[in-house]
Known about the structure:
The complex is a heterotrimer of chains A (412), B (243) and C (404).
Chain A: H1 2-14, H2 16-56, E1 59-63, H3 64-68, H4 82-91, E2 99-114, E3 117-126, H5 128-134, H6 136-139, E4 153-157, H7 158-163, E5 171-177, E6 183-194, H8 199-202, E7 205-209, H9 210-217, E8 225-230, H10 236-246, E9 252-256, H11 261-299, H12 301-309, H13 314-350, E10 352-353, H14 355-358, E11 368-369, H15 375-401, H16 405-410
Parallel strand pairs in A: 3-7, 4-6
Antiparallel strand pairs in A: 1-8, 1-9, 2-3, 2-5, 2-8, 4-7, 5-6, 10-11
Helix pairs in contact in A: 1-13, 2-11, 2-13, 2-15, 11-13, 11-15, 13-15
Chain B: H1 2-13, H2 21-30, E1 36-47, E2 50-61, E3 66-71, E4 80-84, E5 87-92, E6 97-101, H3 117-122, H4 126-129, E7 130-140, E8 143-152, E9 161-167, E10 173-179, E11 185-197, E12 200-210, E13 216-227, H5 238-241
Antiparallel strand pairs in B: 1-2, 1-13, 2-3, 3-4, 4-5, 5-6, 7-8, 8-9, 9-10, 10-11, 11-12, 12-13
Chain C: H1 4-44, E1 47-50, H2 52-57, H3 70-78, E2 83-98, E3 101-110, H4 112-118, E4 125-127, E5 137-141, H5 142-148, E6 155-161, E7 167-178, H6 183-188, E8 190-193, H7 194-200, E9 209-214, H8 220-237, E10 242-245, H9 246-249, H10 251-288, H11 291-299, H12 304-339, E11 342-343, H13 344-348, E12 360-361, H14 367-394, H15 397-402
Parallel strand pairs in C: 3-8, 5-7
Antiparallel strand pairs in C: 1-9, 1-10, 2-3, 2-6, 2-9, 4-7, 5-8, 6-7, 11-12
Helix pairs in contact in C: 1-10, 1-12, 1-14, 10-14, 11-14, 12-14
Amino acid sequence: xxxxxxxxxxxxxxxxxxxxxxxxxxxxxxxxxxxxxxxxxxxxxxxxxxxxxxxxxxxxxxxxxxxxxxxxxxxxxxxxxxxxxxxxxxxxxxxxxxxxxxxxxxxxxxxxxxxxxxxxxxxxxxxxxxxxxxxxxxxxxxxxxxxxxxxxxxxxxxxxxxxxxxxxxxxxxxxxxxxxxxxxxxxxxxxxxxxxxxxxxxxxxxxxxxxxxxxxxxxxxxxxxxxxxxxxxxxxxxxxxxxxxxxxxxxxxxxxxxxxxxxxxxxxxxxxxxxxxxxxxxxxxxxxxxxxxxxxxxxxxxxxxxxxxxxxxxxxxxxxxxxxxxxxxxxxxxxxxxxxxxxxxxxxxxxxxxxxxxxxxxxxxxxxxxxxxxxxxxxxxxxxxxxxxxxxxxxxxxxxxxxxxxxxxxxx
Amino acid sequence: xxxxxxxxxxxxxxxxxxxxxxxxxxxxxxxxxxxxxxxxxxxxxxxxxxxxxxxxxxxxxxxxxxxxxxxxxxxxxxxxxxxxxxxxxxxxxxxxxxxxxxxxxxxxxxxxxxxxxxxxxxxxxxxxxxxxxxxxxxxxxxxxxxxxxxxxxxxxxxxxxxxxxxxxxxxxxxxxxxxxxxxxxxxxxxxxxxxxxxxxxxxxxxxxxxxxxxxxxxxxxxxxxxxxxxxxxxxxxxxxxxx
Amino acid sequence: xxxxxxxxxxxxxxxxxxxxxxxxxxxxxxxxxxxxxxxxxxxxxxxxxxxxxxxxxxxxxxxxxxxxxxxxxxxxxxxxxxxxxxxxxxxxxxxxxxxxxxxxxxxxxxxxxxxxxxxxxxxxxxxxxxxxxxxxxxxxxxxxxxxxxxxxxxxxxxxxxxxxxxxxxxxxxxxxxxxxxxxxxxxxxxxxxxxxxxxxxxxxxxxxxxxxxxxxxxxxxxxxxxxxxxxxxxxxxxxxxxxxxxxxxxxxxxxxxxxxxxxxxxxxxxxxxxxxxxxxxxxxxxxxxxxxxxxxxxxxxxxxxxxxxxxxxxxxxxxxxxxxxxxxxxxxxxxxxxxxxxxxxxxxxxxxxxxxxxxxxxxxxxxxxxxxxxxxxxxxxxxxxxxxxxxxxxxxxxxxxxxx
Lengths: 412, 243, 404
């Protein structure tokens, strides 16, 4: 069999141009796939990251009663002992090591009024230290304002402020029904306005510190939602299950981001679809090999005839051509992986700037996307390139094997 | 006033004729004929096996339908509610600020109880909004009562139908059931204890229930009630509210 | 024409590239369209008309500020050729009494007959739609019903405040459960008829939303254009009314699909480049094989320029042939896609989850795309003929003859 390999190699080397072009097309496909995959991963990561930071974390713990009425953001059905729960989770093996951040939040509805104008609004209250890292709002504060680190400070969506005639520096009376069902009010000063370009945020939301919220709502040390971040968002479902098992309290609900709202399912489905698309590209790239192989067989009919007349068996002829195809595929895949990885490495440092396109988009996305490549996909792509090359070479190889010796020699 | 006296005289001179619904309501009204009122009260709110107790002092002036409620329980201490006619202002002590409550917020339960601000402010709207008929007699806690059925005559009466059992001797409604148009029972009120203060009979312990919500009830208890004592009208001003 | 096989292969590459491209584009567009169609058929309709006063207060869902001239607006709309149906709707806040607990819900009052001309709820109902006597009938989202533990035929108690803010509560029989592709409807939908609501909420026939359905169009673009046209006509008659197209109502959703489309484009461009490489490849190779031939031709006196032009023409012709094949193939495949569609739910399996695309997805026509691709293919093929031609023209004749 060895001689077939060396024969194959020599053949490939014979017509360099042709070989080069074949390899080139595979290289290009693999490179593009690698890049696209890394890019899409970066893109989806961006969405998931912003989405989970702003809304639900990777895992969220609330009371079951809260979940029943989640749409109405109740504040009276809160978790009484968040600190001890956090303590428990951090010290439990298989959970603790995955935890990156645990923070508390209150989200509730209020009516804001200013000299006659009344508007429903939503308050997001969290630990300012953590929220700075997490919240899109912090990044979107309009120049001239600052974050609401201190007591009785708030940042407000610029549209909400506009509709109520508020501006930075104004005092706002926030009144709502507390956890004790009574009406409570607390005054806040607007330290900044934010502009995220997402209407749902700019028109409806303001942010305050959780300590202020707890006072306003008379919630003591309770927390409405425990927002948990993991080291890898993909393990959310798994860890959520573990948390559910370890928490003895059946009044609590543990949910992973994958079950929250519609973005999560879009992400999951996109993943599947993109995988399907990658396969398509790979097929196309390697289809070129098939194309070339077919032509090659025709060009080398005479040679095949001679080989066969010299005693080479059908099977061996087929293996010969198959080998040529696979070698080209492997070379192409390999080159593609190298180039693709280099490209991704470069771009993951600088990122791709989408700021221009983002101005009209209302999705929670970063402006700069960083492609992200992972080892497993890289290996997969390599194997796909090589494998598919082999597959598409089968038919032409069989054709070659089945040529009639006499006719073959007669051809030009 | 004029007509009432006339009515009474007529009623007295005529042979014992059947009393009518409207008259009963008027007699009930007279139990509220105080000019000023001060009292201490407590509201025990039970929702889903959780009990919250609010205590307060109440000062009221019938002229202009004014009342001032100051909360004294820890957690709400210093919070004041000022009701003038149909308007409600709330003073928040920690903020030293006043907010006016209007519109649909009046329909919410006061302090989470089954009493809505609207109910509290409703006062003597009954005759205007309801048609009253005596539908029978009954015995409640060994007191003989008239059974009054009130049916709404306007579309914005809060409950379509109300059935009141009014103590025949003291003219205090001992029970009240509020029904929806469909006939569903929405709310019940039961007076557990009545005290005579001066010439007036006053319910000092009342239980209110929202029947659509299980395990939900509010108990309102009054004490230290003084009628027609000296009350400074200045109490019912914004300035005093902010004090 | 002599080198049939070579030409054939080149043309084949071009054709397959085209086919792949057009099919993918059609499928991607179709998926998007599927999601949008569902959204239109279930919640937003093509147009929604409200009075400006209601629009200002819409967050509070008041039972007020209704349309004063519903009949007039309805008949005006029905006269428009694009309009398929007009349905009134009114929304209200209520509370479901469940095991002694009150669960807040947002209810929608519909006119069952008119509603089915605009919305497709009827098709997703387990149980029955409203019957003739629908005074105490209610339809709930399936997930909502499951949550509160009630099935078709069961009764629920609904509490709400009437239009005059009087308290009311009544029992309703669940006649149907909504199992649609919209997760929000399934988990919070509460529907009753105007007949029931007039009694329950003392509505007096108040209509806050007029929903307009338009005849379906193969291309979404045309559909949206129809919507805008009808909107303009309505605004001309009643300038103060608040009219929103589905696009405006669900701006966020359209944004997402637009972004997805642009990513789809990037992907397709990649496909195109690879196909280009393939085309280039095959044409190039076939020409290289013939460099010797070029030498022969030149030794016969053919000038360089003419040689170049010869190959250019050949490339061009190959391009045309390939493109023609491609168009025919794409026509067939797209026709199949547009009429029969492809079963997305079977392909994607349970990864679908809550995403609002359901069942069979249909392809879309995109003529502009076809033209672009065709031109592109022909261009590449021509170009591919150019390079070796120039090379052959530049080489020494004797060198070409020796070229293997």
